[in-house]
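QUALITY CONTROL LOG
STEP: pairwise intake check
CHECKER ROLE: data steward
CRITERIA: each record must contain a sequence immediately followed by its structure tokens, with no blank fields

ENTRY 1 OF 2
RESULT FIELD BELOW
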Amino acid sequence: MEESLIEKIQNGMTGFSKKQKNIAKYIIEHYDKAAFMTASKLGSAIGVSESTVVRFAAEIGYEGYPKMQRALAEMVRTKLTSVQRIEVASDRLGDADLANTVFESDIDKIRMTMEELDHNAFDKAVDAIIAAKRIFILGVRSSASLASFIGFYFTQMFDDVRQIRTSSTAEVFEQMIRMEPDDVLIGISFPRYSSRTVKAMQYAHKKGATTIGITDSMLSPLASAASHVLVAKSDMASFVDSLVAPLSVINALIVAVGMRKSVELTDAFNRLESVWEEYQVYEKQAL
């Protein structure tokens, strides 16, 4: 198993210079803040130059400071409490233009997701969804909105879609008790990961169903129980999770499934349009 960033620091401590030891000590003691600092800002906090910080990253085996920073951020995001998130956000954002900073961060997450998406896993997920007898969808807490979004569209596209709505772990299993190998479970969770979603994925996997995990990393606890993993980068501007990139992946998934079912989908929406018109579901807009 690959060493974590902290393990690399601890294992190399005896060979570090005095300045490198100061960097190592700061990272270990203030990992929640260090993960979101630029090399320049980290150097200023410690009292060393930016170049010293960059050389430290190379010393412990990273190809540049951004790679070390990303490794640290991946490690700490699951450990930050809401209070710590607020504190980190205060350090990160300062007096910056908040709207533009959040927009730029979201754009960056979408770009990273697009570049790193496993297209083979994506295609297999689409195949599994189309072939499924029943589709189960689970996302809780902040991921519940994503589950509702995909559930809304899949309900219009498939005959048997079940969005698991629950306030306890027991209720999750009660709604999954008849799950079979030709069913699919789509589990959605991002840091801090929901134990209910993880347990549901593990249960579905044991039942032989196809499991699709939509999460932020292959290191996510969802990944080990997923037949197919769709990675979407997430981040927090404060205590709020950024789910823009996950929503883009879900949009792509819905569109890909819809394209494969275009004939059936056209017929279904023609019938829906008639119902919407008859019962005045939507307001009519004057031309």
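ENTRY 2 OF 2
RESULT FIELD BELOW
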Amino acid sequence: MWRYALKRFFWFIPTLFAVTIIGFVLLANAPGDPVNSLVLSSNSGGSMQSIKDLEIQKKYWSKQLGLDLPLFYFSVQRLSEPDTLYKITDEAQLKKLKADLKINGGFKNYIPKITWYGFHNQYHRWLFGGNNSNGIVRGDFGMSISKKEPVIVILKDKLIWSLTFSILSILLAYVISIPIGIRMAKDPESRFSKISQFVLFLLYSMPSFFMGVLLLMLFANPDVLSVFPPSGIKPIEGYDDQSSLFTKICDSLPYMILPLICYTYASLAFISRLTATSITEQLGLDYIKTAKAKGLSEKTILWKHALKNSALPLITVFSSVFPGVVGGSVIIESIFTIPGMGLETVRAIISHDYPVVIAVITLSSVLTIFSYLLADILYAWVDPRIRTY
């Protein structure tokens, strides 16, 4: 088992490397100049400064962000271009120089050359750190342009809240939906099965934004029922400094109920129908007839044999919890004002805070890869034949 898990882990390393390459390319080619954005936001509330002072600030931030380094380990250029072209950070000056080289370069414009820069480049610094940076392998995604704070500081608490809601919702969905699915498969013509199928189909057809607004209108509306708070994840005045962890959880619990319902209902409906369908298929197989002939109880047949052999589709659904931390939470977090990854992603996109956006994309990709690895391990645990593939 461990050998299989280790083998699958090593297969995912090239994928992680590809994810970092894609994230860096997106960040390097994002529109706008991060240095200008930082300088302008730094001087937005003060007096006009001289051009010399602005140039000093630009050089400072270029060095802090590592933009005075070559882009990658190597570059493919025209022979007419100098090796230190990357040191020019002014876009207008760079365009003018390239135009002059194209005019005066002659035949050298048509001869390519490969320049090796070694490990002193922007990608290596972004990935492994260096020059006041720890690199993304140690959780350093750089600095937020709009907030001027480390990206990891901004996202740390957001990620915790998004993961909490996603994991709790998927656990609730499984705990509730598997017994429902088993009972539906056990007696598909019963009144319970028919009512459940109708309710589950109705829930699954409702979009999350409609369900969120409906829950707020019904249970967080003073004109109808003001049972739960309408937004946030804790009291407006915050937690008491002397409060224990259990007290903080109890204080946040009323704020979490409506969002959890909104997170859970679609998964509950889907998993219930999937469980019922999978177990119904298993009940028609020969090994179930053999188990009945041996005198095994119906409970043992359903829970120990049929459920285990129909678990592969359920594991596939379980593996979607981590990729859904960002993508599936944007609408719900916006409706309930939950300070999670989804709401932060919307803010970063609106403010063109590309380091935060790229960090969210990278984290989502890593969580997706981790979920697939977890699913592969669970597949092998449920069905030992998979370990030989």
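INTAKE CHECK: passed for both entries
DESCRIPTIVE NOTE, ENTRY 2: Residues 245-283 form the longest helix (39 residues).
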